[in-house]
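Working notes for the structural subgroup meeting. M.R. asked for a predicted model of this chain before we commit to crystallization trials. I am recording the input and output together here so anyone reviewing the notebook later can reproduce the run.

Input as submitted:
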Amino acid sequence: MKTTMTMSTLLEPDKRPTMSGIQTFQRRALSAILVFAVVGCVCQGLANAQAKAQVRSANGLTVLDAQHTQVEAVDYVKAKAMPLPNSTLPPDSIQATVRALLAGPVQGPSGGSEGGKGDGITRPAFLGTPAPQLGVAPEDFGTSNHPFTTVRADLYHNGAAFATNALAPYAPAGKLFFNVPGGSAWCSASLIKPGIVVTAAHCVANFGQRQFYSGWQFVPGYRNGSAPYGVWNGVQAWILTSYFIGTDPCAQSGVICQDDVALIVLSGTPGHSAGWYGYWYGGGSTPNGLFQITQLGYPVGLDNGLYMERTDSYGYTNSSLSNNTIIGSNMNAGSSGGPWLENFGLTSTLTGETNGSFPQRRVIVGVTGWGYVNLAVKEQGASPFTFGNIQVLINAACGANPLNCQ
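Returned structure, recorded in token form:
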């Protein structure tokens, strides 16, 4: 399978044509250049794709618009788990946790948006039974002393597993298929607006290489080859230019970065059925930067990536690792881009009780970004949501596609 994007597809900003009609963003948005690649180009070579797509630039945004091109095919059966970027740095979870506890309050603006409840009406499709992933070594034992629980995101009823993938609040999460050089791959992703998903930037582009992947197709609530809410094509993808050109602040280049976050605009609004999560930046933690995280994803090392998996762990902010949030987890390849949620689950009715200091429900505060080369460590990291990444991306994607955000 050929990819529709190459390193030469997007021109340098000063060589691109201009375009009007895109809002000028405030604060960091004025200086942040967001880059976007779109899927759905005809798989007949780069020349044909370029003939139908237009590269436009204005007000710090670069857009390749291919919404009206033919949908690109991906191989659901033979798709490989996207490798999780692996850190070669030595873990220091005990010392880092102590530093986080002793640190002063985390400063900076905060904000976000609530999620939405879908109508729950499914539109099932079967994509084929995925091929076995050979040579995968599951992660078994944690050496970081970072407590967590990882389980299949299912319940148990009448002696058998009871699937929750198509039920709230799991349904907005799903598998993201796309094409990379040499074949098809998958990451994890989740709906953050009715027609927009959030994932990791390394599931969208090759860090610092000015190269995008292509053919994104999102399957909310994916389970063992089934698509309960159908398959939704990506028509735009947005990332920060700093990630695209390789200048993003990274504790380890291309692995532990400040802005490993991306949005993909879909061809429709599956969130009206499956629901969508809210998001939050600059908050969701104690004043010392401690979190309680629920992580969702499709790691190949657990159940062969066939089912949604869930990890619950406390997390902390590590200032020496690009301010990434660190949790205990034994997810691996294929979990990239999966949501890190606060206050996951259905909301309780309060009786003689009060809310805590952060009552926002089912809000994403980051996405799975990286793990360790040593699989025994059992820790993962995520770029923190900030105004300068998630809010700027939301503003851009919703400004260009308002119907996807309603």
